[in-house]
Amino acid sequence: xxxxxxxxxxxxxxxxxxxxxxxxxxxxxxxxxxxxxxxxxxxxxxxxxxxxxxxxxxxxxxxxxxxxxxxxxxxxx
Length: 77
Known about the structure:
Blueprint: H1 6-11, H2 14-36, H3 46-73
Helix pairs in contact: 2-3
């Protein structure tokens, strides 16, 4: 599982972003489960990396929603 930069996320289609978001969410749940049971994660910084990548994906999705809403409203003036 690779983590993405914002430019890479912007180039993805909506379907690809949703698939990555789902995959990362499952991976985060797995990592948190290991921690909750008292285990030691292989890479402790991975949880933060996953969270940031999820936030990036959600940010791009929200930007696109706002752009679509603004385009639907037209221009005022």
